[in-house]
Design goal:
By secondary structure, the chain is an alpha+beta fold. It is built from eight helices and seven strands; from the N terminus they run ββββααβββαααααα. β3 and β4 form a beta hairpin.
Length: about 200
């Protein structure tokens, strides 16, 4: 399994990880909003499962700030490839559970991931251990981040695809959301609309 990033800071609730430069690993798979990722701790018998909620690309320091060149990326890569080495892409992920002794727990872990541990895409089996009871949706609903509801919808869409577009999965997810947001019907409807408006229908055709 190929690593997609390396942890550079972490806490009980989440972590930030740096992706390899494109010039280092051109074939490295890239994470995206709503990706399920995992970290296997090198110093503890834990595998952390998390969902990517933000991705940033910025210079490594405040000195080498990007400026507009009026050129396409292809032209820049040919004529000034060094500028891309000054950029770092980082993923920000929320921990939704952990696996210990092959058993999944859908709540926050007892300790954070280790800095410099590697980040991988989660396997279908790992996601099933954490997500089959949908407790992680409540955890996501209580996190105060920008586009939190978008993340909930993206997490369900991604899990739906990972579960081979199982309609029963979508039904159970909808039931879980109904329980979580039973006192906030407007928020519930908004999240359900975001799920339905995605390309799920197009991908099914």
């Amino acid at each position: 399994m190929q690593a997609i990033a390396e942890v550079i800071s972490s806490s009980i609730t989440g972590f930030v990880a740096e992706c390899p430069h494109e010039t280092d690993k051109k074939d490295c798979p890239k994470p995206y909003f709503g990706s399920y990722v995992c970290v296997e701790s090198s110093n503890a018998n834990l595998k952390y499962l998390a969902i990517v909620y933000n991705i940033t690309t910025a210079p490594a320091d405040s000195v080498h700030r990007p400026v507009a060149f009026g050129m396409t990326r292809e032209q820049l890569q040919k004529e000034q490839p060094q500028i891309f080495l000054l950029l770092q892409t980082q993923i920000h992920a929320l921990i939704i559970g952990f696996i210990r002794d092959n058993k999944g727990f859908s709540y926050l872990p007892p300790r954070p991931p280790e800095v410099h541990d590697f980040v991988y895409f989660s396997t279908k089996d790992d996601i099933k251990k954490i997500g089959e009871n949908f407790d992680f949706l409540r955890l996501l609903s209580e996190v105060n981040i920008i586009a939190g509801d978008e993340l909930i919808a993206a997490a369900i869409r991604e899990a739906y695809l990972i579960n081979n577009k199982n309609q029963q999965f979508l039904l159970k997810a909808g039931q879980a959301l109904t329980q979580i947001f039973k006192s906030d019907s407007q928020r519930l409807l908004a999240i359900l609309k975001r799920i339905q408006n995605d390309s799920i229908v197009e991908k099914d055709d």
